[in-house]
Amino acid sequence: MEKPLALVIEDHEDLAIVFRKALQLANFAVEIVMDGAIAQQRLTEVVPVLVVLDLHLPNIPGETLLRQIRSDTRLATTRVMLATADSALATELEGKADVVLLKPVSIAQLSALAARFYPHATKEE
Amino acid sequence: MLERIKQVFAPPIFDNEEKARVAALLNTMLFIVLALVIAFAVIALITEHSIARFALDSTFALLAVGLLLLLRRGRVQLAGFVLSFALWALVTVGTYLFGGLRASGASSYFGIVVIAGLLLGGKATIIFGALSFLGLTWMFLADKWGIIPPPSAPVTVFTLWMESATILVGVTGLLYLAARSLENALARARRHERELVQKTAEVQQLAHTAVETSEFKSRLIARVSHELRTPLAAILGLTEMLHYAAYGPISEEQRELTLKIIRHAQHLERIISELLEQSQFESGIWHLTSGPCNLNALLSGIEVSFAQLAQAKGLTLKTEMGKEMPQTVYSDCDKVQQILSSLVSNAIKFTKTGSIKVRIDRFDDVYWTIKVSDTGIGIPGEAQTTLFEPFRQLDDSVTREYGGFGLGLALVKELASLMGGTVALESEAGKGSTFTVMLPLYLEKEKGPDGKTAGSGD
Q1: Which one of B32, B247, B261, B300 is CB 3.0 to 4.6 Å from B239, fit for a cystine?
Q2: Partner residue facing A85 (CB), from B230, B237, B265
Q3: Is the ipTM of this complex over 0.90?
């Protein structure tokens, strides 16, 4: 069976690698996008189960992408995890995403949270 | 030599400006009086050969010297009163003895009223005016009844001229002093007013700058904390990947080392959070929310969160609820939890052996309390008052040994006061500490402290 897709939208390369590893540990197929505009395009092409979204992104901010995901019926089941270093924005956007994480995020934490959104696990909730 | 003489004549100096002014005036007057009575005495001796009058004037000269000494001991008011009264008595007795209203002595009353007014203020002017009026009236009646003793020596025109001229000079001098004293007082008042206006402007400017600086500081801290978190996230994440052997197996030693890096990174993160919270509080962007708060759940949460940390140090962590305490209160649960976490984390940090006890209890119908007790290093009395200020720890060695920024307790205090509560501390160095947070007890939603904004910096 094909692994569910997690889209990591994060412009910091090392963090993107960390996120990818954490999501791979939770058995996701991971795709990394490091630019807001490219991410916007990509979101019209794929239906990820999970999006890990940074807020400060080049070209298009994460907030705009979050609104786009939420208004797109095609992505109605997509879960969004915000991962940001901006604590003010994190507080502001609490409730708009499925999870808001304040960086630094531990791998164990991210992996455990991602596992909760794994398609097989949804029945448990 | 000249300096010595100057010193003798110089008025005493006092911190109180008004007292110094009166003292300077009284000093000048006493020297003038001294000069005048000596002059009177000499004139009396030469022109009238009157030993009685010479003795009277000399006594008065001695009194003036005594008052000069009294003045130098700081008894300005008393010296002023004694001088005024003595002058009044001298004029009254002198005039009575030497011809009453038919001599020129009575006009000296003017001088006394002026002196009393200058030295003792408005009320004294009226009192000495009235006394002088009584003196004049007594002279008039005594003259009418013929009981005024006959002058011991004939009053010559020269004596009259001399006495009138002396009184004229004296009163002129006194009025001059009075006018100058008033001018000085007025100038002083104007100067103070100018200074006050200037100071007010300075204070306003300072307040403005302080607000600007504080806002800038908050923005800077928010920005810096954001910039620090990103690389910190990478350090933590990459190290964790190594630690969890995501890139292949690692040795036990490597696992320990990577764990140390992770712990340090987590510590750094806590410091950044504390800093940011403090600056957010200062800029007044904390808000209170109110909702049902399950205290049992809160306590279990604390036990779970800190069990490992306490165990690692061999400490026992106990939590308990008082029987009277309702399970659920309406409060800002996040802030209560923050207070609890901060106090428990502190208690663990500063306790080497023994136990940490957390107890939630009802205080009365209006308040409930959170008590966190430890068997730690304790806090000496003098440090207990400054402990709740930001960036305060007992001393630098504490910072070195226990780490942290010293922001935790300042936050606890501010959180508590934001919620309408207080924090108290009982502690003895070496025996341990108990922090008691007292919070308003709300059992229904309507009465909860909903939607209030954080205070603006008070």
Answers
A1: B261
A2: B230
A3: no
